[in-house]
Every structure is written in C-alpha cells, then in structure tokens.
Design goal:
The protein is mainly beta. The chain has a single domain, classed as Immunoglobulin-like (Sandwich). Helices cover 12% and strands 36% of the residues. It contains 2 helices and 13 strands; from the N terminus they run H-E-E-E-H-E-E-E-E-E-E-E-E-E-E. The strands form 3 sheets. Strands 1, 4, 7, 8, 9, 12 and 13 form a 7-stranded antiparallel beta sheet that branches. Strands 2-3-11-10 form a 4-stranded antiparallel beta sheet. The chain has a two-stranded antiparallel ribbon with strand order 5-6. A hairpin with a 2-residue loop joins strand 5 and strand 6. The longest helix has 22 residues. The radius of gyration is 20 Å and the shape is globular.
C-alpha cells in the first residue's frame, strides 16, 4: 500500500475512534413506563423568535397570558423521593410546524442534579393522532392496559447525565415513538437533546420546554385528538395520569 494511502486511512480511523469515545461518555437514563392528558391549543402567539414560536430556554415568561392545559400534571406532588420530579403544570401551543410544550417541574433539572446526579424520567405524552381509540396501541413497555389503547405516538422524556472533559452536567431529552412494537426500539422517529446545538429541547429555571415536529407525528393543522400525560413519579397510580382532547389551530 502506498505510504500516502496508509496515512489517510490511519487518520480516518483515528477520527472515528475519537468520535466513538466522545459518544460513549454520554450516559442516558434507563427507560421506564407512563400514561394520560387533556388539552386545548390555539396559536400562534406574537413575538415569534426566528422560525420558532418560542425561545426554547425553560423559562415560563414567554408563556405569559397562556392558560396551562393542566394546572397540575398527573398527581399532586406528595411522597416524592430525592430523585423524583413532579410535573406542576403543562402548557401547549402550536403553529403550522410544531406543537410546543412547557412543563413546570419541581425540582428543576439543575436542582435535582445537585441532589441526585443520576438519570431519571420526567414522564410520557401519548397522542391518539387519528382520534380513534379503536386504532393504535394496545400496550406500552410490555404493560397491557386500557390506559394505553388507541395511541399512535409516544413522547418519552428522560433525564440523563453527561461527562465532558471531566465536567458532569444534567441533560433532558425526548424521543418520539410510533406504536408498532409497543413504542420501542427502531420505531423512534425523532430525538432531541438539550445539550445538542440547535435542539428543540431545553431545560431552565422554571421547567422544561420543547417543540415536537408535527410532520414527524404525521399531524397537520387543524387537528383534534386525545392526549395522555403519564407522570413518571406516580406512574403506578391512576392519579398519575391525565387525559383530554387537544385542538390544534393556526390563528391568522
């Protein structure tokens, strides 16, 4: 082999190894189950930043004047362990491209990390995108229940921990799954992480804020469908699930 080819090949191999090492530093939380929701959404609002309706920064100030869809997400905070996250309220808004979600949580991702620097789960959103409970899923994460019947989309929201150059930081992400195979594995259609540049997921001093691509969920505006929120801290309790109808409209 010519010397030049050998050097180029070696350089490419080193780059691949380097990227693999960086990727392996990221530790995601272990997945676990969810359930329920209710909603009424109209949009868009004024003050658009760039191509997005909201600046995704985990601050609730941009949502001033918008009523929360759930004043309490799931069960009221009680008997929470050191690592638990309580969803205090949930807001929704949409434009022609995205469904925006803001969740007030306690503690915040940063506050929790200071006490418990480990992976966890905030919860799950389930969407019955065709608004027909007779089509879609029959179970989620191996758990068969009437709660999960009829949903086509699951949005899983885990908390992770990442170590970069010796500094450990918390991260929150979402993964959108289709119902085939019980919302698992290869059926993920979109993933966003708060530490990625240009991500549609963020956490901040008031909670977590993210934008879901309507196209990824095969939704177009206008639309009305069932939504369910499953708060992970209370996922074994019926009170930990909230269900309702979400209406997406673009107001000109």
């Amino acid at each position: 082999m010519p010397k030049t080819c050998f050097i180029v090949g070696l350089s490419i191999a080193l780059v691949i190894v380097s990227l693999s090492c960086k990727k392996s530093e990221k530790v995601e939380s272990v997945e676990i189950p969810p359930e329920a929701v209710r909603i009424k959404v109209e949009g868009p609002a004024s003050g658009t930043t760039g191509s997005l309706l909201f600046k995704l920064d985990g601050k609730v100030e941009d949502w001033a004047g918008i009523e929360p869809f759930w004043a309490e997400g799931g069960a009221p905070g009680q008997d929470l362990g050191e690592s638990s996250i309580d969803i205090k309220s949930v807001y929704f808004k949409n434009d022609a491209r995205y469904l925006y979600v803001f969740m007030r949580i306690f503690p915040t991702i940063e506050e929790r990390f200071k006490k418990s620097p480990s992976g966890h789960i905030v919860g799950n959103l389930f969407l019955d995108t065709d608004n027909n409970p007779k089509t879609g899923s029959n179970a989620a994460e191996g758990r068969e229940s009437d709660l999960y019947k009829g949903y086509e989309i699951r949005v899983w929201i885990p908390v992770g921990v990442i170590n970069i150059s010796g500094k450990t930081s918390p991260t929150v992400s979402y993964e959108i799954y289709t119902h085939e195979g019980g919302f698992r594995g290869i059926n993920v259609v979109d993933r966003q992480d708060s530490l990625d540049t240009g991500s549609l997921m963020a956490h901040g001093p008031d909670g977590i804020e993210f934008a879901l691509k309507l196209e990824a969920m095969k939704l177009t505006v206008p639309a009305t469908f069932r939504v369910m929120l499953a708060e992970y801290s209370h996922f074994d309790e019926e009170a930990g699930h909230s269900v309702g109808q979400l209406t997406l409209e673009v107001v000109k």
